[in-house]
Each structure stands twice: as structure tokens, then as C-alpha cells.
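input
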Amino acid sequence: MTDKPVVAVFNSHDHGDHWLGNHAFRDAFGASLPIYALPACISEIAGVQGNLWRSLLERWTHGATLGTQVVVPNRPVAHGQELRFGDTTLRLHHYGVAHTPCDLCVEIVGERVTHVGDVAMHRRIANMDDGSYLGTFRTFDALEKHAHSQVWVPGHGDAVPNLLRENRELFEGIYRPCEQAVKDGVALEQAKALVLADPRVKKYVDITQGFESNIGKYTSLAYLEAEKESF
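output
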């Protein structure tokens, strides 16, 4: 992307496809290279999640990543913190559990651009196994209010102005029917049909990568969260 030296790395969360590259950057630019992450993310990478994700990526890539080391971020950061690099100021955002408990979003101040990690993806459903639909909605609300951006950069897919709006629409289409199903005493087994019938979901069926193979799991996660919220 550039022939300029890397002066800092930011890990958006603790899923390995977003931090296993730390090893390459450390080797290329030295052990003192700042690698920033939220404290909870640092703890997860330094703990069991680090080696778990290293092993998972080795298996998923059929051994192509063998030799990659777990390099833990060395600079803890906090919500609202600003960091300046030359004439560029970055403002950090974290609004609780969304995609994971430790999602770090990075706003380029004055440029109306914010990198949101996997809080939102373009034409793909963000994995919610470690996250929360309601937490994601709250994060979208906060980013739209405080990040002052026109372009949102996802961890997967293209940077587009309507990224949060599209993700919200699809997630609402999955979560709200499940929420209503819980209120009406409709079983999980019937909730998937309600989700698939929702016009917000129908809109994205053909343009969302992995939709058919994942919608069952995402419906189940939404139903379980709605069930928990009902108590």
C-alpha cells in the first residue's frame, strides 16, 4: 500500500485474523514498534486465545501460516484517547460488547473516515459468537453520533458510506423477529422462518457472503440473546 515505514499497528479485536500479522510488522520494523489495543484485547491475546487462534489459522490455511508467532500488543489504549502521528490525529472509540467485548474503532480526525474493525462488514455478516446484537446497535448509534464520519472502513470488505446503515438493517432483520418470537412464545425452531420472511433480511440474501450456511447460527444467537434479555 505504501513504501513509507510503519510507525504503529492497531489491533481492532482479539480474533486472530486481525492480529497475527503483528509478527511480520515486528520483524520488519523492530521490537519497539508500538502495537496498540484495548487492555481486554491484550489479555485475550496474551492468554489462551493467542495460541488458540494461531492453531486455528494454521489449520484453516492448511499450514501456510506455520511459524507465525503470537506477538502481544505492547501499548494499551482507552476509549476517547487521541494519538498523533505527524499531521494525522487518531481518536479511539470503544462502546462495549459489539462484535466482541474488546472492539477498537479508529477515527481519522478531520478526514471523516473511521475504521470499525469487524463491528460491521461489507456484504458479509459479522461473526456474533463473542458479541451482541443489542451491543452492536448501541455501538452503531455511538459511532454515528461521535465519530463524525462519511466513510466507514470494515475489517472485511469495501469501505463505503452506508456500511453501518446496511449492517444495522440486516442485524435488525435478524434480531427483531427473534425478539418478537421470544415474546410470543414461538420456539427457536420456528424463528428462522420468521427471520427469512423479514423484508430487511430478504434484501441481503443474495448479496451477503456465506448467508445460507450461516443464517441458522446467527438466528440462534439472536434468539438466545433475546431470550436472555427477556428475563
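quick obs: The mean pLDDT is 96.
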